[in-house]
């Protein structure tokens, strides 16, 4: 196997380089362009990857200078390649690894989104990073990601789930396989191992971050998981019920975008000021839940109900539509046990229709622009039942799917696809640190999914032990994509300080990037605290708020 280029350039064994701590100063060779090109011939045998594969090969190695058109990531060597599958009919995992000319001695794995199927390049900013900050690659990180082992035509193209190896790769194995390849390429280019290895992702990438902590803890020193889809099988089953609620009564339960706007305006009218500030953000969620209790009723006491519960226009909701919202507001009980983690899990938490969900998270009508066929939750609520659970392409998952018929298969899939275990002993034991966060008005993944997981962690570890390696934050007004408070947070900075300097994060600061409120800041409180406006100070400044317990 070839010797690393950096070691060749200075004439030192890799072990001595590591002892001397030269990684923070490491460059691959006198001429980085010359060092990059030979990596196009790099092959990695299957034995060097920690899970079964057919080995890996680099297909493309290109040096990108700092002044290249459109490049904001500094000078780097861009490596692309494929990790071969074991089965003849399974697709490869396509990966990209970016090796900066001025390496800081660290690596950062980027997570994906949706059902993956698109190459995560590791270029640009990580999820919810302030765009005024330098990208991780520009800061000297080796960055990398993959397509998770399949190519999809849409964010929720589930056809790959028909192939067992592709399903396992998406479920969690691609994380380890890609990390092992990236580590070996890093060693080859710089001549030594990294000082610190990190993972960061949001949504499906947050799910993968949980997989990294739970399944592959030896590979990471620090992890950030944003709004994680960690309990993904139950999430998609809950999404199925959510979407089916809109199909009920021959589609009369569907709520049009105009009605959604009228309804959410009433929620914000009642709840916005409960945190002391009329700022378009509902921070006192507990008080809001109580204040909107009458919105769930099918009686004259409900101020958002049409007269007699009939369909009377866009200014109010019919009883059928109130029923649909009530379904979303209740936990989803699978009806049988799924013993896939330390406690088992057959109940998925509720969504937040009466607590500030806008149903326009990301700018699109999440209940469908023209009807329930376009509802956001219909996509995952169809893909997983059809392709992964039933494996029946003729299945109408919105009308004919009954989870009880597939209890055994669902239990199998939870083992493969979900990351819901609270057993973080190996990660904790090696000094790993985990930060995870979730917006309170996330229309894609309910915040209560993360809250439920954190509550289980507390029951397992207790506050003192848990504080030593986990931090959890909820962010009022932040959605999955946008939200009334479209937050950006320097999470990697907080994680670095904790891992490398022992500075545990407390209260954080987030900045809003919505066009009409750009630049305002808010404190990000450790759960269960929330930010209350405490003075007559500037509503745009975090200093005017204080974190308080419910």
Summarize the structure.
This protein has 550 residues and is of the alpha/beta class. It has helices at 5-10, 14-20, 32-36, 164-190, 204-215, 232-247, 257-271, 285-291, 319-328, 378-390, 407-417, 425-429, 447-467, 491-501, and strands at residues 43-44, 56-64, 76-83, 93-100, 106-110, 142-146, 196-202, 222-226, 332-333, 347-348, 433-439, 470-475, 487-488, 508-512, 521-524, 530-533, 545-548.
Strand order of the largest sheet: 1-2-3-4-6-5-7-8-11-12
Shape: globular
Strand content: 15-25%
**How can the largest sheet be summarized?**
10 strands, mixed
Helical percentage: 25-40%
Average pLDDT:
93
Radius of gyration: 24 Å
- Distance, first to last CA: 59 Å
Structural class: alpha/beta
Number of strands: 17
Tally the helices: what do you get?
14
Regions with pLDDT < 50 over 5+ consecutive residues? 1-25
Please give a structural write-up.
The protein is an alpha/beta fold and 550 residues long. Among the domains are: 1-194, no CATH class; 235-417, no CATH class. Helices cover 30% and strands 15% of the residues. The protein has helices at 5-10, 14-20, 32-36, 164-190, 204-215, 232-247, 257-271, 285-291, 319-328, 378-390, 407-417, 425-429, 447-467, 491-501; strands at 43-44, 56-64, 76-83, 93-100, 106-110, 142-146, 196-202, 222-226, 332-333, 347-348, 433-439, 470-475, 487-488, 508-512, 521-524, 530-533, 545-548. Strands 1-2-3-4-6-5-7-8-11-12 form a 10-stranded mixed β-sheet, sandwiched between helices. Helix 4 packs across helix 5, helix 6 runs antiparallel to helix 9 (319-328) and helix 6 packs across helix 10 (378-390).
